[in-house]
Amino acid sequence: RPTVTFDNVSFGYDKDRQILHGLSFEAPAGAHIALVGPSGAGKSTIGRLLFRFYDPWEGRILIDGQDIREVTQESLRRAIGIVPQDSVLFNDTIGYNIEYGAPWGQGDPTPEAVRQAAADAAILPFIESLPNKFDTEVGERGLKLSGGEKQRVAIARTLLKDPPILLLDEATSALDSRTEQDILATLRNISCNRTTIAIAHRLSTIADADLINVMEAGRIVEQGSHNDLLRRD
Ligand code: ADP
Ligand code: ADP
Question: What pLDDT is stored for residue 184 in this prediction?
Answer without folding.
Answer: 87
